[in-house]
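Reviewers asked in the last cycle whether our approach scales beyond single polypeptides. To address this, we selected a multi-component target totalling 172 residues and predicted its structure end to end. The input consisted of the following lines:
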Amino acid sequence: MQTTVTKEKPITKDSYIFTVTAAARILGIDKYSIESVRFSEILNKFIVQFEDSDPLLGGQQKFLTKQNFYRDFANSRRERRHQILVKRTNQPLTFSATSSKDMMASRYVLELTPSTITCNCKDQEVQRNLKLPQQCCKHSYALMELLGMQTLSLIAYRKDKVYQNIVDNLEF
Ligand SMILES: [Zn+2]
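The resulting structure, written as structure tokens, was:
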């Protein structure tokens, strides 16, 4: 059996969602100015500690909520949907997604179900393993845009009606 050679650290919410890169993106600052991001149980918030050497921030702290990170997690994927080309396949409610720029990029399979969109990319796999309430990758967002859907929770919420509408209107 072939296995991965490198020993990867298990992916956790901390390493996948509550990251320095995400904190920098949320705060609109350079990630190298951040010294650490840690969660305070007492405050129920993340404390973002800056480098003392930063003249603008002067070793300050800023606070972020879990919600801030979750929102960024979704938004950063939603923004990247523009890099994705989605096409219909000959299977019903099944689509293929690939990079719109790189012709050699991997191709992923998306499936539209009554409550969500599944994708076989690594990102969704990790999110499933982390048991995030709703998994969504940039490929799913690209498909949602194509189908004129604003949010995944919309299909989950109004299930049959919205789903049926989408299915009825699939023309591309
Ligand atoms: Zn995906």
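The pocket of zinc ion is lined by residues 108, 119, 121, 123-124, 137, 139-140 (CB under 6 Å). We regard this as preliminary and will revisit it once experimental data from Aim 1 are available.
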